[in-house]
Amino acid sequence: MGKLNGLIPAVFTPFKENGEVNYSMIKPYADKIVKDGAFGVFVCGTTGESSSMTIEERKNVLEEWVNQIGGRIKVIAHVGGTCQSECIDLAKHAASMKVNAVGAIGPYYFKPSTVEDLIDFYKPIAEAINPIPFYSYHMPSVTGINLSMKEFLSKGIKVIPNLAGIKFTHNNFMEMMECINLDGGRFDILNGFDEMLICGMAIGSRGGVGSTYNYALNTYKKLYDSFIKGDIKAARMSQKESIDIVNVIIRHGGGVRGGKAIMKLIGIDCGNCRTPFAPYTEYEMKEIKNELIQIGFIK
Prior knowledge:
Elements: E1 7-9, H1 26-36, E2 40-43, H2 55-69, E3 74-78, H3 84-96, E4 101-105, H4 115-127, E5 134-138, H5 140-143, H6 149-156, E6 163-168, H7 173-181, E7 188-191, H8 197-202, E8 208-210, H9 213-229, H10 232-251, H11 254-265, H12 282-294
Helix pairs in contact: 1-2, 2-3, 3-4, 4-6, 9-10, 10-11
């Protein structure tokens, strides 16, 4: 498959007013992502509210994304969770759908206390998809798993031959750089914090997975392309644009809740989030729209 050198939206899961998955919205959503020039999609991750979905829903959503993408761009399936056997089941299903890669967040309730424990959790999940590339999803701010990722890669590759890299959603850029440079640059380290993409690229990352790429991909493409061309000033300006957007969603419940509101404003109605996120009100939608107008994101 090679490295994931590009921008990959972590897609939302559309829901109806009654809370059921709105599968009919995935087609126009997929068409928009492809038209915008994304490298791929990351399905049923944090942004996709996978932890609030049933196993059957996660399988069905992945199937719909694979069908609607139709091979036009890459599909990366997220299969992580707290129950290893369920993760293995999801991994086998993802492999049967012929996805391009699989990622998994570590168990975030009963947590691994050592790198070896984390490897033991991941090993049978990765085996279920071999030779499809497997990515660890590192997000210690949510999982509380703050183990050495350099050590994880060094030890993990000895028993997980299809270990391709890490979705690195952390601001420890020293560790991120160590992972990027490990073993001659063998591993694919994907930038996870959208508002820090320029930082990840500065230390060598050439791929990113993010929620704000769903509706602001043009901003990030300008950043990415400017950086590659060596126009750091222009890249900084684009990163500032993204930070302005991120500040809006932070004020309105964060990347998942605030992001879904923005998706509705741009014509891809993904509905409300599932509980415990509160639904956004009509007044709040007006607020968000006005704030986005103020920063020049929409007119």
